[in-house]
Predict the 3D structure of the following.
Amino acid sequence: MTRVRIPVLILTLAAVAGVALVGTSAPEATGGKMTASANAFLASLTPELKTKARFDFNDKHRTAWFFTPQQDKEKKFTRKGARLEEMTADQKKAALALLRSGLSAKGYEQATTIIDLENLLLELEGPKGAMTRNSNWYFVSIFGEPSSTGKWGWRFEGHHLSVNYTIDKGEVVAGAPILFASNPAEVKAGPKKGLRPLPEIEDHARALISSLKDDQNKLAKQPKAFPEINEGQPKANVGAPVGITADKLAAEQKATLLKLVTAYADRMPEEFAAAEIKKVTGTPDEKLYFAYSGGPKPGEPYTYRVQGPEFVVEFLNVQADSAKTPANHIHSAWRRLPIDFGLTE
């Protein structure tokens, strides 16, 4: 099989994904936007809400991230932070502006679609469902003092959505974990029938899986599903990479793999995404892995990972949705290795 190193495909990737590789100033520019948005959000809050939103940079809450429902036996929320539900219209607008500063236009659209799905889940499950479904149960936390001189971070989080950033001296040093999930993965009935909030991360994966030859499939396919994404702590704990390496893929298959990874990076602001993708395209072929379990056809449970030395993409579609449709419930995450949140250990 002809060996085509990943860096050769950078221009192809940029053309397909619309991501322009930029200079080292990009993380600073993105960090500046986040700083301004965070300060505007804090300035909009009452003293009571500001107390809920603000934490020390080293507070344990910073790395205790969750995308699953967090509630007690009385179905009351247990997440920390300032809650959209208790904000005025202007405060909520400022909170969403902070979220927008950490996402691309497409990523922001997907994130707000995920939030809106809470209303659909409430319709499907009813008020007596086991989980509280509330599109205003999304929380904002600011860690440290937003500035261009020190370290600080922020999180926007609720059910099926967790966006985390760390900034140091005005530069974004970590955009991880970023988790998007969708229940249902595809709306099967009603006015929103056909809606797929996260189509690319399935379509490109299925295309790659379907393209694998028998010898490639023996390397890529795993006997067991990958475990659920490791929330609540800064380490993904995914272990050593498994599967097929990029040097064993044909050029077209490798291009599909890069489209898949780019679909995750495309959630981030364009400038920062370009810096992250540059790390991926600079990964030696023999150190970039793709692995999956299950079947690629709609309705079949499956999981996959794309893993390199500095990052891992995790995906699961193994649960039924709230309407009991099999394998129609996605969890997907972009994480840094060996550790998230700009930490070194």
